[in-house]
Amino acid sequence: xxxxxxxxxxxxxxxxxxxxxxxxxxxxxxxxxxxxxxxxxxxxxxxxxxxxxxxxxxxxxxxxxxxxxxxxxxxxxxxxxxxxxxxxxxxxxxxxxxxxxxxxxxxxxxxxxxxxxxxxxxxxxxxxxxxxxxxxxxxxxxxxxxxxxxxxxxxxxxxxxxxxxxxxxxxxxxxxxxxxxxxxxxxxxxxxxxxxxxxxxxxxxxxxxxxxxxxxxxxxxxxxxxxxxxxxxxxxxxxxxxxxxxxxxxxxxxxxxxxxxxxxxxxxxxxxxxxxxxxxxxxxxxxxxxxxxxxxxxxxxxxxxxxxxxxxxxxxxxxxxxxxxxxxxxxxxxxxxxxxxxxxxxxxxxxxxxxxxxxxxxxxxxxxxxxxxxxxxxxxxxxxxxxxxxxxxxxxxxxxxxxxxxxxxxxxxxxxxxxxxxxxxxxxxxxxxxxxxxxxxxxxxxxxxxxxxxxxxxxxxxxxxxxxxxxx
Length: 472
Hints:
By secondary structure, the protein is of the alpha+beta class.
């Protein structure tokens, strides 16, 4: 998707959807939270012709929606506006709304037409330029985990699993890949399938995860990382809307329950050269459908040297990127032993205990799966960090350590930073992150998150009161 499109797109859309009454203009912020404006139908053509003004400070909002003045985009400079232009091809219906409506993704620009530095979509576009300058096209897929939760909290004010539409009982446990659990929420999943199809979001498989009310929905592979992240943002919007329709909430919080697994954002990446060849593929794999003699196939190399270098770059930048992969205080609750989240920069073949996994499958589908990020992360920024890591590895020919075989959790050697103050400090001090993301964006992101952390730490928790109030 490009950043502007002729008014013909409007005419074609309104001709196909003549009952449209209003349009939501969507601008995802640095947290991945969708901000924007709602306009009436008759203003849509003007938006495509001239754009729409929104305050630059929308990219200095914390997770609660408060402007972080230390970022320098608010009152200090007069709360100025910047022009926002439509993302071409993103105008679509919103079939869950009570009245006929549509939505349109936007990008923010400077007054001279250059990309606004704080817009995460532009940050990703810059990394994509670096990759394309190597003559490569990334093919990516996004997997999102989420919890369905009851709209009512329990007696302690904490989230609780939903009431099963099938049994009428509150969910107490699910079994990973359970078809019965998918059956219980069939109408919910059916509505998601309908709405994503109506919006052109390439949703693929749905999986019941190993926790009550937890699911994963995968998006199909695309050769446009920007479009893939657009679809991830829009998929979240669909899931939340459908959950509300069915009397539930959907949460992408990294870890809403203390005793259950967290929600992940897994991203798959392969690279095609100018001839359309996957540069990550090797000879064969014993489990591949394309393999011949199995003993001979086991001796073959299933991945290329370039894949090794890409993995080396990802592992080399992983610690410095943790503030992007795990952007919130709660993100680090997910990084606990025993919950299928790697806590060290490890990699391996067909191994779900590592940070960077090389899935089995046909050689032409050889790819990297990144498993560190939480579902609360901004997909544009995560994708940008991953493309930066791949670029770094390919251009510097970085050799990774030996791949891990067996349970990586039992052999993890070097822990990744797993506290927000430490990861923010790593982000600020990283020359590689500054090189790829730009000093202005790094300062904006870190300042916003530091202020958010300070506000969080100011509050006295229930646990603190229980531990210390009468004991001390």
